[in-house]
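pinging the channel bc i need a second pair of eyes. not urgent but kinda urgent?? the chain im working w is below, pasted from the shared doc
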Amino acid sequence: MSETATTKLTRKDFVSDQEVRWCPGCGDYAILASMQKYMADSGADPAKTVFVSGIGCSSRFPYYMNTFGFHTIHGRAPAIATGVKVANPELSVWMVTGDGDALSIGGNHLAHILRRNVDVNILLFNNEIYGLTKGQYSPTSPVGTVRKSTPMGSVDRPFNPISFALGCNATFVARSIDTDAKHLTKVFAAADAHRGTSFIEILQNCVIFNKDFYSKVVDRSVRADMTVDLNPGEKIIYGAEEDKGMRFCANGLEKCSAADADLWDPASATESQAYAISQLDQDPDTPKPIGIFRSVEAQVYEQQVHQQVEAAVTDKGPGKFEDLVYAGDRWTID
């Protein structure tokens, strides 16, 4: 969670002196601007904030935030973020990754930070393509994606990042859109307030290799009918007239009138209900869910680690490093 800075800061205070190097029109610009503004508005302290990234277009993010940061190696950002948070639980740690970095080489690391419930906020930029390495299909690309690496179309079934996170028992799972600053900021705030791992998938436009891949969902002319916002405590409704809804049934979810729609509470919904909503992505005629899918409380990893350390010190004393090094079997090589 963010610490309150001693003086009121503005977005400019979170803008670094580095030249931003993304393609003109890239959705990353919008996400960066929303994050810088959120940091200022929330009273975050740059000296107690850390951004950690792996490899990919999205992973240049730490350079552009006037905070502490690590640009790490491919797929290993979760390991570094975990180490930072365990070493200093007082820090506000944000991890930035992409669909390739997180769900291909980094899939194992991502799964473990989610299940451990480390108090880290994870932003997964999903443009359903490898942008930095020039447009190969990624773990979230739809079946049939034609690119240089798949000239006859990809035959891989894609990951659903939300379903993946829910399957890893993540305690906070959400989805937002790069160009919707209001919605994105609302999700940032909810994730920041959550104690434990917060996972946010952000639909992000790659203007070079996968331009407007989500336009059929988020364009102003269709968004009201093609997205359903999961607002805690509100009915699951959508449509330009807010007259359509969804309710749970034996087979998962079914469409209904707004009057008959179920209320949504990510804190009390069952795992199967949250998963069923995430699977709406499989039906092109069903609105794509955005908002908060899950928000539950659980023990936080780094807190438990420190409790174990404190218990060990109380039981056996602080100990000495030399004693640890020379404990057990050892030998001398002449």
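so Residues 103 and 139 are 6 Å apart (CA to CA). and The first strand starts at residue 49 and ends at 53. — does that match what u expected or am i reading it wrong
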